[in-house]
């Protein structure tokens, strides 16, 4: 559970809070026998810790919760509508713009170049979206901490 | 720990079930989760930004972002540290943009739990009732509140997450994206700093 690389006196906190495995606790208690001054420090910290445990957050006034959920729901609705409008509008403008540019370019080489650029952009966009929505949730390494 | 947290947290299994349903788009389950965690999240936001309106707004925003990112969440991991990390990042951005406009002091944010507190304190391995120290927690509470306020922000955060929000070392590490050894070390140094600040008030 705890890291042995942490300096021993600092592990005192984990010992007091019972955040050590049995093995770590035994090892730490052996160390403590050689350092009686830690016992004194532990007593002081235990007292402080108990006092800290008597404190809690003051409950917020009930008016804080007026329309709390409704506003969260409202924000979600607004953003979903906003994204849909943005996506549809973006697609329409892109399609219209692409058509205009292709019809504007009369030279066959310029036309081919434009078609390739637009196709490349579309493939990249679709690939990013697909990766984000479909592949990432199943990425077996996504929980690995780097 | 001596008392239960302020809100009605669902059990781990209920929480998993709720998260599964939220992933499937169930707004009723989302509402239940929001209601279960809103007070906890609001208090955490208030601790960070010290302003009621901002705390309310940022905690709501954290719930919105959580819903938008739910597909990236692994339901087998604890939920609150993840939600807290979203909130923490929002609060840090907010403070970077608007600076600290403190309207709420830590002293007004904290109160004593209404629980029977035993005289003296015990340590791991002690027999019950083995009084080790003469510091009486009841008398200390007022001084403690001011002492916590004087801690470095990273120490204050860890103390409050462990003692008031009742998160484990693992959950704190996950929420703040730091190693468990750092949680341990910060908690140790935070308590040492607190002990020093409390020295003039010891009997």
Structure description:
The complex is a heterodimer of chains A (146) and B (203). Chain A is mostly helical and 146 residues long. Among the domains of chain A are: 8-52, no CATH class; 105-146. Chain A has helices at residues 12-16, 22-34, 36-52, 68-104, 108-135, and one strand at residues 55-57. Chain B has two domains: 12-98, RNA polymerase sigma factor, region 2, helix turn helix motif (Rna Polymerase Sigma Factor, Chain: A); 133-201, Arc Repressor Mutant, subunit A (Orthogonal Bundle). In chain B, 63% of the residues lie in helices and 1% in strands. Classes of the chains: A mainly alpha (146), B mainly alpha (203). At the A-B interface, helix 1, helix 3, strand 1 and helix 4 of A face helix 2, helix 3, strand 1, helix 6 and helix 7 of B. Strand 1 (55-57) of chain A pairs antiparallel with strand 1 of chain B, so a sheet runs across the interface.
Summarize the structure.
The complex is a heterodimer of chains A (146) and B (203). By secondary structure, chain A is mainly α.
Helix content of chain B: 55-70%
User: Judging by the overall fold, what is the CATH architecture of the largest domain in chain B?
Assistant: Orthogonal Bundle
Discrete helix count of chain B: 9
The whole-number mean of residue pLDDT values of chain A reads: 83
Largest sheet of chain A: none
Oligomer: heterodimer
Number of helical regions of chain A: 5
Largest interface: A-B, 52 and 68 residues
Main pleated sheet of chain B: none
Proportion in helices of chain A: 55-70%
Instruction: Provide the CATH topology of the largest domain in chain B.
Output: Rna Polymerase Sigma Factor, Chain: A
């Amino acid at each position: 559970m705890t890291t042995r690389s942490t300096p021993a006196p600092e592990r005192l906190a984990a010992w007091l809070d019972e955040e050590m495995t049995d093995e770590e606790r035994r090892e730490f208690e052996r160390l403590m026998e050689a350092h009686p001054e830690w016992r004194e420090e532990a007593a002081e910290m235990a007292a402080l810790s108990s006092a800290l445990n008597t404190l809690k957050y003051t409950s917020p006034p009930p008016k804080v919760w007026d329309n709390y959920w409704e506003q969260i729901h409202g924000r979600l609705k607004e953003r979903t509508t906003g994204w849909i409008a943005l996506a549809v509008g973006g697609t329409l403008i892109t399609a219209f713009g692409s058509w205009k540019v292709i019809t504007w370019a009369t030279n066959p080489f310029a036309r081919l170049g434009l078609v390739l650029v637009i196709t490349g952009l579309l493939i990249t966009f679709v690939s990013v979206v697909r990766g984000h929505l479909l592949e990432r949730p199943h990425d077996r390494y996504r929980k690995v901490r780097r | 720990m001596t008392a239960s947290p302020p809100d009605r947290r669902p059990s781990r299994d209920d929480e998993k079930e709720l998260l599964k349903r939220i992933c499937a788009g169930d707004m009723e389950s989302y509402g239940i989760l929001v209601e279960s965690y809103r007070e906890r999240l609001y208090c955490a936001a208030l601790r960070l930004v010290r302003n009621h309106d901002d705390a309310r707004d940022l905690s709501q925003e954290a719930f919105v972002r959580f819903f938008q990112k739910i597909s990236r969440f692994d339901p087998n991991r604890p939920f609150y540290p993840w939600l807290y990390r979203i909130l923490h990042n929002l609060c840090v951005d907010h403070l970077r943009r608007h600076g600290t406009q403190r309207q709420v002091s830590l002293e007004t944010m904290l109160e004593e739990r209404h629980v029977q507190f035993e005289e003296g304190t015990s340590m791991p391995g002690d027999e019950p009732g083995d009084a080790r120290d003469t510091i009486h927690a009841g008398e200390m509470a007022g001084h403690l509140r001011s002492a916590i306020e004087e801690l470095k922000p990273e120490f204050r955060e860890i103390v409050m997450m462990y003692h008031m929000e009742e998160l484990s070392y693992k959950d704190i590490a996950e929420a703040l994206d730091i190693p468990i050894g750092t949680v341990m070390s910060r908690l140790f140094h935070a308590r040492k700093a607190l002990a020093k600040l409390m020295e003039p008030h010891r009997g």
